[in-house]
Design goal:
Number of domains of chain B: 1
Distance between the termini of chain A: 24 Å
CATH superfamily of chain B: MetI-like
CATH architecture of chain B: Orthogonal Bundle
Largest interface: A-B, 31 and 20 residues
CATH class of chain B: Mainly Alpha
Distance between the termini of chain B: 43 Å
Largest sheet of chain B: 2 strands, antiparallel
Structural class of chain B: mainly alpha
Shape of chain B: globular
Number of helices of chain B: 12
Helix content of chain B: 55-70%
Number of strands of chain A: 12
Oligomer: heterodimer
Number of helices of chain A: 13
Largest sheet of chain A: 8 strands, mixed
Structural class of chain A: alpha/beta
Shape of chain A: elongated
Strand order of the largest sheet of chain A: 6-7-8-3-9-10-12-11
Order of helices and strands of chain B: HHHHHHEEHHHHHH
Strand content of chain A: 15-25%
Radius of gyration of chain A: 23 Å
Number of strands of chain B: 2
Chain lengths: 375, 329
């Protein structure tokens, strides 16, 4: 039985990239659980499959990737859906509304030809048309014609005649009402992002924004529809250290305000310690350890997690790195994928892939060192 | 009172676009060459619009056919009060031909480029976005067209096209369309013109479709069509618009070349290339005075020259104005 609290559960997700050089086994039975209202840090080095896991959650795997097995179970209004079995239309209505994503480089995540307003309004118009119409109808200076149109739009948001009408010049002037409401909403979003002078920023183009400002805009777009799950793919990597801190604080505050759960993808252990409730450590396409954040820092179990924590540079302590290099995922090592770099490797490690087991309460690890007796 | 508030409201609602328009004008003013380009094209547009006033056609005749004055002497005439730019051999009025030729030039240039753009954007966009076998088929087809020298292929097509095209022929319903020789020139230029747009757009689409903002749009739940029209199209179309503006000049030049060779518009048609073609025998015919009868080829030549120059300068202006990434520098 699944725990009722879990918002997102990824079970044994297998994803492969069919490239010219061979089949890249990018994700190998990834197991992940995100509970309601928590922040889960997904940590690992470059190329271990963190970002791809994030994209898989939206079922947006870039070609030539293909999901070959597993389940992604997402809870929406107390119903559970296996996202991999849903139709594209359902997924499209989910993306941006219930699950949304913040990308790594904020500047390239904004379309250069549209103003900030246009980009936020686009998301709002896609998913929040009905609430916007209701807001329009609350006004008392509408003409009878406009009131009629908006009532129709409210009952049938995808009405064909209205869509045609909104394309005809002059006849589409009724749209300025909803545009005005959407613009106010966009300004409110920017205010919530602690952007100074949102009235001015909302009319700016992406290249006029600073890095931190652009990232705030991207976050505003992601949170515009108050998603239950926010996937943040290294949102602070390309920013200055000071701006990084501001954005981290912002994300923490917004989480309280909007009540979203966050899947925070990063390679920075410091950020994890700062922000996350629980941590999942990834190595070469599989999650090797999952636990509470304090537990991971105090009592790391998997040799890779220990190595990762040991390689954070500190003053006065000799710098240690993990021996060897990340294995190629085209021909991954048999058994545990860490076995050729692991100082504690045993014979069985190179033969069988270890199973995820609960060593302590809420502390899961995928390693034979902690298995009780021969399995 | 109410009317006034309506007007105020209207003014307020168009204020942002007026501001953009003024900004665009200031952008054009900053580059003198753009101003020259715009001025030239505005001049030609004015000439085309006012053609019936400047050079009134004889009632009852096709206005595009140059008036013929008797006697049809074989010698050209220098400018005179009767014929401002003189006449060609055969006594066609050059002034009339040049003025109405402007309309012909616009018709050829704008129609050909517009049609090629529509075809090129559709095919290039689809093959760039979807890739795979569709892309492969379409691009090999453009390769075939690129393999021929453009002007020769155009000549061949003009000669090969039938004068009557049957569009529908199902039982009793029969719809056919007569093609004049100028229509044939248009069609053949469209047929050889679109592949270059398709190529450029395909490349641009392939570049843009991997950008993060396209992925972000997908992650926000946009459909394929919406992504193509709202996110990819505005980011890819600028090079093509600039290209098409340059091409309008180029196509008029090619049409003039065809006209000079005697293919295309019928004899006596107001077409700059045709005019020069009529005076072919007199270009440098007198070894002692190469510029004898200069007016019959220099004047239509100047019209072609300025028309092409105007579009080329306008192409640069378009780039400064339209591309939003260059616009706000």
């Amino acid at each position: 039985m699944e725990e009722p609290k879990s918002l997102l559960k990824i079970n044994d997700l297998i994803l492969k990239f069919y490239t010219y050089e061979g089949v890249v086994e990018a994700l190998d039975e990834v197991r992940l659980e995100l509970r309601d209202g928590e922040t889960l840090g997904l940590v690992g080095e470059t190329g271990c499959g963190k970002s791809v896991t994030g994209l898989s959650t939206l079922v947006l795997v870039p070609p030539p990737g293909r999901i070959e097995g597993g389940k992604i179970i997402f809870k929406k209004k107390d119903k559970r859906y296996d996202l991999l079995a849903q139709r594209e239309e359902f997924l499209r209505s989910l993306r941006g509304k219930d699950v949304s994503m913040i990308f790594q480089d904020p500047r390239s995540a904004l379309n250069p030809v549209y103003t900030v307003r246009d980009q936020i309004v686009e998301v709002l118009m896609r998913h929040k048309r009905v609430p916007l119409c209701k807001k329009v109808l609350l006004r008392n200076d509408l003409s009878r014609y406009e009131r009629y149109l908006y009532t129709r739009l409210l009952t049938n948001p995808r009405s064909f005649t209205l869509r045609i009408l909104s394309k005809i010049p002059l006849a589409n002037r009724f749209r300025r009402r909803i545009n005005k409401v959407a613009r106010d909403e966009a300004i409110n979003m920017l205010k919530a992002m602690r952007i100074p002078d949102p009235e001015r920023v909302v009319e700016m183009y992406p290249h006029e924004l600073s890095g931190g400002m652009a990232q705030r805009t991207v976050i505003a777009m992601a949170l515009a529809c108050s998603p239950t799950l926010l996937i943040a793919d290294e949102p602070t990597t390309n920013l200055d250290v000071t701006v990084q801190l501001q954005i981290l604080n912002l994300i923490r505050e917004l989480k309280k305000e909007f009540g979203s759960s966050i899947l925070y993808i990063t390679h920075d252990m410091g950020v994890v310690a700062e922000l996350c409730d629980r941590v999942a450590v990834m190595y070469a396409g599989s999650v090797v350890e999952t636990a509470d954040v304090v537990e991971v820092f105090k009592n790391p179990l998997h040799p890779y997690t220990r190595g990762l924590l040991g390689s954070i540079p500190r003053v006065g302590v000799p710098f240690k790195s993990i021996e060897g290099t990340v294995p190629s995922l085209i021909n991954p090592p048999k058994g545990c994928r860490f076995n050729d770099r692991c100082p504690y490797a045993m014979y069985i490690c190179s033969q069988v892939k270890p199973k995820m087991m609960e060593v302590k309460k809420e502390h899961f690890v995928e390693c034979f060192l902690y298995s009780k007796g021969p399995s | 009172m109410k009317g006034q508030s309506r007007w105020q409201e209207f003014k307020a609602s168009i204020a942002p676009s007026m501001k953009e328009f003024k900004f665009t004008l200031s952008k054009i003013k900053k580059s003198p060459l753009s101003v020259v380009g715009v001025a030239i094209i505005v001049f030609f547009v004015g000439l085309a619009v006012l053609a019936p006033v400047i050079a009134p056609p004889i009632p009852g005749y096709d206005p595009f056919m140059m008036p013929h004055t008797k006697p049809y002497g074989p010698y050209p005439q220098l400018p005179s009060p009767d014929h401002l730019f003189g006449t060609t051999p055969g006594q066609y009025d050059i002034f009339y031909g040049c003025v109405w030729g402007t309309l012909t030039a616009f018709r050829i240039g704008v129609l050909v480029v517009a049609c090629s753009l529509v075809i090129g954007i559709t095919i290039g966009g689809l093959s760039g976005y979807y890739g795979g076998i569709v892309d492969e088929l379409m691009m090999r087809f453009t390769d075939i067209i690129f393999a021929f020298p453009g002007l020769l292929l155009a000549i061949a097509l003009v000669l090969a096209l039938p004068s009557n095209i049957t569009i529908i022929n199902v039982g009793p319903i029969k719809l056919s369309m007569g093609l004049t020789s100028l229509d044939k020139v248009l069609i053949s230029f469209i047929l050889i013109g679109w592949p270059s747009y398709a190529r450029v757009l395909r490349g641009e689409v392939m570049r843009v479709k991997n950008e993060t903002y396209v992925e972000a749009a997908k992650a926000a739940g946009s459909s394929d069509l919406r992504i193509m029209l709202k996110h990819i199209f505005p980011n890819t179309v600028y090079p093509i618009i600039i290209m098409s503006s340059l091409d309008i000049g180029g196509i008029v030049l090619s049409a003039a070349a065809l006209g000079f060779l005697g293919i295309g518009s019928p004899a006596g048609y107001s077409d700059w290339g045709r005019l020069i073609s009529l005076s072919r025998d007199y270009i440098g015919s007198n070894p002692h005075d190469l510029l004898a009868y200069w007016n019959i080829f220099v004047i239509p030549g100047l019209f072609i020259f300025f028309f092409v120059l105007g579009w080329n300068l306008l192409g640069d202006a378009f780039r400064d104005i339209l591309d939003p990434t260059l616009r706000r520098r």
